[in-house]
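[job 4417] fold queue: 2 targets
>>> target A
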Amino acid sequence: MTQHKILYCWFKKGSTTARKYIEEGIINGFLAAGHEVETWDGVHIQSLEKILNDFQPDVFLGHVRNQPGYNPALWITNACFGVLQRYKNTHGLKVALETHPDSITMFNLLDISMSIVEKNKPFHYQARPGLPAEEKLVNTKFVDLILHAFTDKVNNYGFRWWVERVPVMSWPLAADSTVYVESQDDVEQDIDISFVGGWWPSKGLQLDKYMKPMMEEFGDRLHIYGTGWPYGSRGYLPDNEVGHIFASSKINICLHELPFVQHHPTHVSERIFKVGMVGGFAISDNNPCILEYFDISREVIISHSPEDMIESCNYYLKYESERKEIANNFRERVKTDHTYIHRVNSLLERLF
């Protein structure tokens, strides 16, 4: 295996959002696969020049757009770009950049209710692709590969502008196998049902739909962890305890924001891969993208309504042997196909 040197540009250094865990998982994936990694904040040119001079990376992994507002990343629009471009021209640097979909086009073509889009303005009303900074990436032949965390079925309606100009690769989320090392076999499963995740208004549209009936049905047997909840949460769960909760829960609930539980597969959250990594049992809402990665009924259980989820929970709490068999199948699938080691290997294979 060829060892590579990766310069990773943070999406938003210091972020405490879900993106933090994704980025840490990617970096850990490179390290676990035997590569070297240096990180850069995407802002300071002096630190960039020092990394290029001392570390001499052969891969630059960054982002086209950053929050807030999903505007072009600063490094593209300031002097840092010139430094990176000169280094690429002299050292043969390979460049892979993650970006977001053309959401309005995607949702219109998929006939996803615009009332749902209205609830998600910060993400879904971003500017259309083809901004001057993006044109510059293409015209200078700086970017070798565009990445996105959606299924490749989204390419031609969510990333069409890029597909017509640059190679595009689906690069889904995954499990960090260096962090989620605990197994359901190592702990007592003393929690009947759990959900781990924060609440915010747009996400609450789906969380409330499922969690409120679940709370009425199961009461204290349902443990909710996360920040921002206006009801029911046991509070913030430290990073080093999340895997333990997944492993010690008989049932882990996985829910997605409303745009991702429509008729067409688009995107699946990182949570479901984490649950599988520790051998947890998962019941998810009806996100069709799960079918892209898992064998439903054999590895993951899908619920089509809150009533269906309650019925499934009652059934699998009763039939432990079935639950454990499905959880074991789930873990084997994640370990075989869906860790960040798999993701970084697939990226490097495409670049080289």
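>>> target B
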Amino acid sequence: DEVAETMVEMRLSEIYLMYAEALIRLNKVNEAMPFIKEVEMHAGVTDFTAFDAIDSADGAMAELFNEFIRNFVCESGVDAAVMLRFPKNLVQTVSSKFEKEEYYILPIPTEEFDANSGLDRIADQNPGY
């Protein structure tokens, strides 16, 4: 089959939030906050009292995580990728299913074991499955 479309679509808000995440991880919280605020303003947020009081990397990371989830829940797996990158204490606020680390990876499908004699169902299966 011929692939007719190769373009990956991203929203500008995703780029802003990813850039803010990189800045926060570099401990440049003050530089990151305007990008998060820009996304929130376009979403209709008008009261930034609590937002403007954030003064730590942990607080900024929590705000950023929440903004990612609000913007991208169930959208092309963006929310799942975010949950893999962010601290577990933030991820667990979304779902208690993420309390076990083995839930961060998927099991090797049965079909893979059936098709590949080099895999051992017990020894090679991801932990917890």
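[job 4417] complete. Note on B: The mean pLDDT is 87.
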